[in-house]
Design a protein that fits this description.
Length: 111
Amino acid sequence: MEAETDAYKQGKRQSELDVAQGCPRLYWGTRGSWGELLTRLMAERFQVTVQHVGCISTESQRAYERGYNKITSEYIDRTFGEGAFQEVMDEVTRYREESYRQYLQDRDKNE
């Protein structure tokens, strides 16, 4: 676990530097239209760039990303109001759920 701890701390340190330099990012496994929505909302509301990550990675990479994202989400809430980060994530979740419901309705109509 020490490698994860070191990677997590390294991610936090890098995020702190990036936030201080005005170029915060968020590492997220995004797909399809909901990923585009997340990318757009983070950029428009918070000036945060979403760095799209794949599902094949090492534990060390995931730990780094978790550490990095922790600082980014704290920065968003500190700068734009408590709960601002979660509001965007909730909006994306609602969009995903509605899109899936619509897909199922359309599929059922065509069967």
